[in-house]
C-alpha cells in the first residue's frame, strides 16, 4: 500500500493500515497524533512554532499551534474524543548551528517546545520523541503498530 505523504507545511489523516510519511525534516517537526482505539492517525510537518494571524492562515500545517488544532478538528469530525489521543514527535534539529550562533533563532528547539506545549494544552500525551541534534530526518508512522520510524541522513534508524 502506498504511503500517505505529508508535505512541508501540510497535514494528513490516515486510517489503519495506512502509513504516514514525511521527508526532509531539518528544523521542522513531524507531529503524529493518533487514536489506537479508533485506528486513526494524523501527521503534520510543521515549519514554525506559532501562527500570528490565525484567521488568515492558509496552511494550518505550517505552524505547531494551527497544525495540532487542524488534526484535532479532523478527529472530532470523525467522532474521536480528545482523551483517546497520543502523540509522537521527531525533528527540530539545528541544521546550521555555527551559522546562527549568537543570533538566537534556534528554530528547531522552538518548534519542539511549541509542539510539546500545544499538545500539553490539549491533554495529548507524548508517547515518544526523537528531537534535536543536527541531522535531518525522514519519518514514517505506521497505523498498525503505532510506531514511528525515524531515519537520519547518515543512515541511522530509530523506532519510537
In short:
The protein has 160 residues and is α+β, with helices and mostly antiparallel strands.
What does this 3D model show about the protein?
With 160 residues, this protein is α+β, with helices and mostly antiparallel strands. It has a single domain, classed as 2-Layer Sandwich (60s Ribosomal Protein L30, Chain: A). The protein is built from two helices and ten strands, in the order βββββαβαββββ. It has helices at 64-77, 107-121; strands spanning 4-5, 11-15, 19-25, 29-35, 40-46, 86-91, 125-131, 137-142, 148-152, 157-159. A hairpin with a 4-residue loop joins strand 4 and strand 5 (40-46). The radius of gyration is 15 Å and the shape is globular. The chain starts with a strand and ends with a strand.
Percent helix range: 10-25%
Specify the number of helices: 2
Inertia-based shape: globular
Report the uncertain regions. Answer: none
Kindly report how far apart the N and C termini lie.
22 Å
Mean pLDDT: 91
Given this structure, which CATH class is correct?
Answer: Alpha Beta
| Number of distinct beta strands | 10
Q: Largest beta sheet: what is the strand line-up? A: 1-3-8-9-10
- Structural class designation: alpha+beta
- What gyration radius follows from the Cα positions, in whole Å? 15 Å
